[in-house]
Design goal:
single chain; alpha+beta; Endonuclease, Chain A; 2 domains; two-stranded antiparallel ribbon; 7 helices; 9 strands; about 25% strand
């Protein structure tokens, strides 16, 4: 009852032997609602701004072939965030991508993107030019863990591939793209564990 009194919805009737409360005019309820509405309208722009800033897009789609591979690289540039590579093979350096890659590497440098590579061990001997081009930091998986697949993580993207070899991609390469900030964060955590387990170069 004290809460109702504080809000001005009831009042104590003086002069009665027992405590008796009388409700106020019902229109008082409408007045309270209007006050709350006014308060909400004042903070609503900030709430909307915060919501839009933190709302997450989640999606999944597939790229195919050489042009799809270029789209994946464009996605990486658009995030302007560091990129992490699991099972990297230097597939970017497929000769068919040479002219595109030159522009990509320049744009990535301008955007401050740092690459963190966990390469398949074969890259060390078969494609040392890749190591020079991308720069450190990088490490190598033991030879027994080489696969024909890769996983790349950048921004809110997790991208997995099949159909790649050392400095080459197949004509019909399939690129699976998942957009999810929580998923990408999890993959970065797993990447860090693998990174810590691999010997320093």
């Amino acid at each position: 009852m004290s809460r109702l009194t504080e809000k001005g919805l009831v009042f104590l009737v003086v002069g009665k032997k027992e405590k008796v409360y009388q409700p106020v005019e019902p229109y008082k309820l409408l007045e309270l609602v209007q006050e709350k509405k006014k308060q909400l309208e004042q903070v609503l722009p900030d709430l909307v701004s915060e919501y839009r800033k933190n709302s997450t897009l989640e999606a999944a789609y597939i790229y195919k072939g050489i042009e799809g591979f270029k789209n994946y690289l464009r996605d990486m540039l658009s995030t302007k965030e560091d990129a992490y590579f699991i099972g990297a093979k230097g597939a970017w350096f497929d000769p068919r991508l040479q002219s595109f890659l030159e522009g990509f590497l320049i744009d990535a440098k301008k955007r401050g993107i740092t690459y963190h590579h966990l390469f398949d061990s074969e890259v060390k001997k078969q494609a040392p030019q890749v190591l020079t081009a991308v720069g450190k930091p990088y490490k190598f998986f033991p030879a027994t863990y080489s696969t024909p697949s890769m996983v790349d993580i950048f921004g809110d993207h997790v991208v997995s591939f099949t159909g790649a070899g050392i400095t080459r991609i197949s004509d019909d390469i399939t690129i699976f793209v998942n957009i999810s900030r929580p998923l990408a964060t999890s993959y970065k955590t797993w990447f860090q564990y693998m990174w810590d387990m691999c010997p320093d170069v």
